[in-house]
Write a structure and sequence with these properties.
- The protein is built from four helices and no strands.
- The protein is mainly α and 86 residues long.
- It has one domain.
- The longest helix has 17 residues.
């Protein structure tokens, strides 16, 4: 006799088709597909949110500009906007 809780769920036709495709392509049972999906969603929600540095890691250092730009941003922006609208 299998252990665990039995779940009854209603699926719309699109979700049912996706489930059937996953079962067919993966060779897993319906139970295995659902169990895997629940586990992945659970892990995703428990994972720490990426930091801003992580999100923009590919962009950091990708733009060239004055080395001291961060120390005088207002001046740099004003000069840049002045040239743009001149």
């Amino acid at each position: 006799m299998p252990s665990g809780r039995r779940v009854n769920a209603r699926l719309d036709p699109a979700t049912q088709a996706e489930l059937e495709c996953l079962v067919r392509e993966s060779g897993m049972t319906v139970t295995e597909v659902i169990r895997t999906a629940i586990h992945r969603l659970y892990q995703q929600r428990r994972a720490p949110a990426p930091s801003v540095a992580d999100v923009f890691a590919d962009l950091i250092g990708a733009i060239e500009g004055p080395a001291d730009w961060s120390s005088d941003v207002k001046k740099a922006l004003s000069e840049g906007l002045g040239r743009k609208h001149a």
